[in-house]
Design brief:
By secondary structure, the chain is mostly helical. 74% of the residues lie in helices and 0% in strands. The chain has helices spanning 2-9, 15-25, 29-37, 42-56, 60-65, 78-90, 99-110, 121-145, 153-183, 191-202, 207-230, 234-263. Keywords: Coiled coil.
Amino acid sequence: MKEKIIAYLSGPRPYREGIALYEEYGLNLMLKATFRRNTETDLLRATLMEELRKLAGISETAFRTMQRKAVDSPHISSASIVVGEIKAEETAVNVPVTPVVENVIRFRDRFPFLNSPDCPDVLKILVADMFTAYDLYLKTFRELGELPDDVELEQAFAIAKTTVENYLEDRSIWEELEYYRDNHVLLGKHPRIAVSLASDELSNKSDLEVMNIRKNAASNVSKWKKKLETVEGEEERAKALAAVDKWESMKSAAEKELENRKKN
């Protein structure tokens, strides 16, 4: 069973194939029914992957950092995952450390640029945000699994919403880190990175241009907040929230730039 699930998790992870695996090996009948009845969402996919991870006996750290093969790539066995964990442990200082410290050491090994003096400050800030988002995701994910059958829908929705938002935040930051590691430039898809890049550009613009940027950002904040009132689906809601955050940050950056110019 474990080899079969690990082979799946090491590949492109088609959603329907994952459901079939859980149908065969999973124990939670309610989850099986939920997967069968509903179309794929970020929350359901995250739930499915987490359940398969536990069935395969893969640690959270190994799962987050496991190698993924392309469709036609050679199979990655569970042994390679274990070896990967051992190698990660060997990079740590040879003194007793807590599991939290071990995870940080492994993380730093994966993204060595974080130790460099020329690492952008915004990435260092996002790392802290990512750990917070991941912890909240795990916490609320467990809460979802422990909800009684007669739970109020509003309560379940609130927990599910928090779970999805923190999962997407964690993945978004992870993508930024991997892109910077591989390309040595910022990707800019995460709202905070996008604003950081925009702030660098603001310093080269005239007062009038910065004021127009502030006005445009304020308009977009209003537009996306209105969309939030009618948007349907957790994924679309998360996108709208990200847009609000992006434009609010942009507006704040423009206001800060104008304020700094007044002082100077």
